Amino acid sequence: MSSTFRRSHTGRPPLVSTACAVAVAATTAALFSAAPSVAHEVPDGSGSHSHQEAKANVLPGEAEILGQEHADAHAMLRKAAQSLVDDYPQTTRTARLKALTESQAKTNASFDKTEYGAFKEYFDSPDFGDHIALLPTGKVLLFSFERIETNPTKEPAPTQVIGKENAGRAYLWDPAKGTGPSAFKKVTPPSVNMPDGLNVSRPAPFFCSGHSFLPNGMLGVFGGNLGGNGGTGAKLSLVFDPWTETWAMNEDLVVGRWYPSVVTGADGRQIIMSGQSELGWGTPTPIIERFPEKARPVPLSKGDIPRFVKADVLKAEAPFKRDYPHLFSLRDGKIYGLGRSYDQQWLFDPVTETRTDLPGRIDKKDRNYGSAVALPGGFRGPDSVLVLGGDRDDPNTYQLSGGKWKTAQPRAFGRTQDDTLILPDGNLLTVNGAFDIRDYGNGVLNPNADLKYRQIELRNADGDWKLGPVQRLPRGYHSNAVVLPDGRIMITGDELQQIANDRDITDDINGTIEIYEPAYLYNSDRPTLTSAPADPIGYDAKFQVTTSTPDTVKRAVLLAPTTATHSVNTSQRHVELRIRSRSGNTIELQAPPTAASAPPGYYMLFLLDEEGIPSIAKWVSFAPKG
Predict the structure, then answer these.
(1) Distance in angstroms (rounded) separating the CA atoms of residues 163 and 147
(2) Counting CB atoms within 10 angstroms of each CB, which of 69, 146, 231, 249 has the fewest?
(3) What keywords would UniProt list here (predicted)?
(4) 384/404 Cα distance (integer angstroms)
(5) Residues ≥6 apart with Cβ < 8 Å to 22
(6) Which residues, 6 or more positions from 269, have their beta carbon under 8 angstroms from its beta carbon?
(7) Which residues pair with residue 241 across a beta bridge?
(8) Cβ proximity of 336 and 372 under 8 Å
(9) Phi, psi of 585, deg, nearest 5
(10) Does the global pTM surpass 0.90?
(11) Rg (the chain; Cα; Å)
(12) How far from each other are the two terminal CA atoms of the chain, in whole angstroms?
């Protein structure tokens, strides 16, 4: 029985005899095995259905034998059973997935994997993956919400729900354990009693929150859904500890935030901006908060777990008109707040707590959810940002550098809801995308998609783009992707597409994961990285790594782990490391010069050969001396 029926059929149906119940069950079974015809609404059991509505489903002669009321009860149950089949049947989901699998294989047969890479595994996941974070343990944290709908043409999230169904969920995927059920671990968020007047505890509804990493590798998660009024901001403040794989609660934020953005600054503190307040949709907050508060030291060690810690409020405000702005901490130590409204581009100084204007984006348009990336900037870290997606009619990309905007090379077509990643070699990869928020060009909440929204794009060192192979599922709203330490790409997200193509909608396995292998994994043997320092490394300090392939190593780079949602990825960062000396299998590297170049925390360290082929990464961390 679908979750739709379980939720809607809350009243008490008319009584039927045991014999009649058996007859109805037989009829229901027959209906479930039949092909769907016309969609119906599921009865709510309240007795509001008229005699005429029920009469349409009464079998010939049934009323004469059972009586009209009894026959109407049978008819209503049959109608409910039929609606389960007609609503969005499993046969449709199975056929959709089969068609997508076949079209992917057919399309990708023409792409040379040594030039374009290749899609490999496709497997089930217990979570939608609307939020994602690659942890410094190598595991991936996925979190979202408990679905309230199994029909992909309806809203599955409990945005408008006030009460226990408005709940969060979270899982860990361990790539080292493969792709089966044993590779996943449930890590449910703490139970909370939300201030909704119902006094009902449930796992914290932290979906559509904002997040970034603390220097000790923990993930700070802020905001979420209080429920109702078009999306009401929660004041939630949580930390996920990757070392113990547990959650910790902190003091509430000063204001509710639904769709906020968070970035980690050069001092290791998290800057929280925007989001709809506890008053509901249409009330974005201008208040900027900082976690932890300035009076508390920044957590640097694994044992320093923030619990019941406060955030404080900055003097400056960030009056973004639209939610989920892109935030970047660049090499000058400033926070760049790039709003989706073209005229809301601001520079924040977290030290003086001031805001200044940046030039308006030159496209002169407000953009939907789309990706933006801090471009690789060499040894000193990034100093420019590329805004890519968010406008289905504009394939151009726009670069902010030195306080000025310029139009950069276009992609093949405009797309929203896309995710763009920095690869270890410094090139860019775009996956996912859509025509609009939940529109793939065939209408809102219509899961059918143009093939092009499944096609990846690759950007080389010269800034030129080329289209590549297609992923199996089209993934738009709430899609996500991360670069794994072995250089592969994990792709997930978009609850509607995952529901529409679910192998078995009756189980609780909500999501799917796809793995893309870039071309650098197909071109030659990889360099090796045998060892790297386990203790935190000071800025500008020299440190040693070992390799069994010293002659092939030409570059060393840091890649920050991704945490993202809604196409907003504030954490990823690519920093080159200077190679200072070599001796046998030992290579001496020099750390980034300052915390502004690479904010304190954990990074993947890759060694690369002259072709840009990366080793498997090892985790290193950076922290201020003393």
Answers:
(1) 14
(2) 69
(3) Signal
(4) 10
(5) none
(6) 290, 291, 292, 294, 298, 350
(7) 246
(8) no
(9) -90, 5
(10) no
(11) 26
(12) 60
Listed residue (454, 451, 414) closest to 436, CA to CA: 414
Compute CA 83 distance to the chain's CA centroid, rounded to the nearest angstrom: 32
Is the dihedral angle over the CA atoms 40, 43, 48, 50 positive or is it negative?
A: positive
pLDDT per position as a tens digit, 337-361: 999 999 999 999 999 999 999 999 9
Please give the Cα distance from 252 to 237 (Å, whole number).
Answer: 6
Q: Residue for token digits 């029985």?
A: 1
Q: Is 6 helix (H, G, I), strand (E, B) or coil?
A: helix
Q: Which long-range contacts (CB under 8 A, 24 or more apart) does 520-523 make?
A: 520/117, 520/423, 520/424, 520/425, 520/487, 520/611, 520/612, 520/613, 520/614, 521/117, 521/487, 521/488, 521/613, 522/113, 522/114, 522/117, 522/118, 523/114, 523/611, 523/613
In the 8-state DSSP scheme, what is residue 593? S
Alpha-carbon gap, residue 173 to 175, rounded angstroms? 6
The answer to whether residues 398 and 362 touch, using CB atoms and an 8 Å cutoff, is: yes
| pLDDT tens for each residue of 362-400 | 999 999 999 999 999 999 999 999 999 999 999 999 999
Token digits for 582?
């070599």
User: Does position 19 have pLDDT exceeding 80, yes or no?
Assistant: no
Beta bridge partners of 171: 142, 186
Tokens of 72: 């109407």
Name, in order, each residue with C-beta under 8 angstroms of 30's C-beta and a sequence gap of 6 or more. Answer: none
Residue pair 514/122 in contact (Cβ under 8 Å)? The answer is: yes
Torsions phi, psi of 181, nearest 5? -55, -35
State which amino acid sits at residue 369: Y
Question: Which helix (H) or strand (E) segment is 170 a member of?
Answer: strand 168-173
Return the half-sphere exposure (C-beta side, CA atoms, 13 A cut-off) of residue 514.
Answer: 25
Distance, in Å, from the CA atom of 263 to the CA atom of 212, rounded to the nearest integer, reads 6
Judge whether 228 and 280 are in contact, CB under 8 Å: yes
Strand blocks (E) in 484-541? 489-493, 511-517
pLDDT digits (tens, 9 = 90+) for 572-622: 999 999 999 999 999 999 999 999 999 999 999 999 999 999 999 999 999
Q: With contact defined as beta carbons under 8 Å apart, do 560 and 482 qualify? A: no
Rounded to whole angstroms, the Cα distance separating 410 from 367 reads 16
Render pLDDT for 286-325 as a digit per residue (tens, 0 to 9).
999 999 999 999 999 999 999 999 999 999 999 999 999 9
